[in-house]
Amino acid sequence: MQLPSQQPPSNTFPANDKENTISITLRSLKSPPLNLQLPSQSRTTSIFELKQRVAKEIGSESTEGIKVLYARKPCSDSKTVGEVVGDEAGKEVEFGVMVVGGGVSAAVTAGAGSASVGGEDVKMGGVAKEGKGEVPAAQGQSGEEVLGSAEFWDDLKGWLMQRVRDERKADEVWSLFKRGWDER
What is the pLDDT of residues 97-114, one digit of tens each? Predict the structure, then answer.
């Protein structure tokens, strides 16, 4: 009696197979600024794994509030890099990152300053505040200044794209808001 030959399954790939790896850049131009290079990542890396890397990089314990975008569209956590970018993508791909809501730890939002931990001083914009875990009041533009800036309207459009997940509908709603504000 002969035994069938032992051959590895045809769907396995060598660990260093360059055809199945891709260099990934995770970039956020907004707060917090981020430019994370991930060389030689497997195409089977999940979007959730990318979010975990971003959370670690920005000092957050949670991936909540972190959105990974490809071609300016949100990516589902359950998708893999290969599923999102397809076979046409080259050896390098760039994903956008948005951090919304409470996704950023106090250490990151403090920027160049330091966060308040256990009653220590908090420095924001060169101003020290004493407190027990208090966050200083927001600095910078407010009211009319913010609403008159292109950055505000771009942020609103991005937020609408995330929530509505339909580019035409998001543009329509954004246009209504913008026109309403301009015509008041």
Answer: 998 865 554 434 444 333
Length of the chain, in residues: 184
Q: What strand order describes the sheet that includes 21-28?
A: 34-42, 21-28, 92-99, 66-70, 73-74
Whether the full predicted model's pTM is greater than 0.90, yes or no, is no
Query: pLDDT tens, 119-142?
Result: 333 333 333 334 444 545 556 777
Nearest to 29 by CA among 147, 174, 155: 155
Angle of CA points 103, 71, 33, to nearest 5°: 40
